What does this fold into?
Amino acid sequence: MSGSALHDDLTLAQHAADVADAVTLPAFDARTFRVDRKPDATEVTEIDRAAESAISSM
It folds into this structure.
C-alpha cells in the first residue's frame, strides 16, 4: 500500500470515528437506551445500531 493510500485510509477511519462519537457519546451519557440480543445472544444497543448506520451512510 502506498503512503498516499494509507493516508486516505487513515483519514477515512478518523472520519468514521468522529461520526461514531457524534452518535454514541451523547446517547451513552444520557443512559437511556435499549439493549437487545442478537441471534448469537450477544448484546447490542440501539446506539450501536445507530452508529453503524451513520458510518455506513458516509
Summary: The mean pLDDT is 95. Helices lie at 3-30, 46-56. The beta strands are 35-37, 43-45.
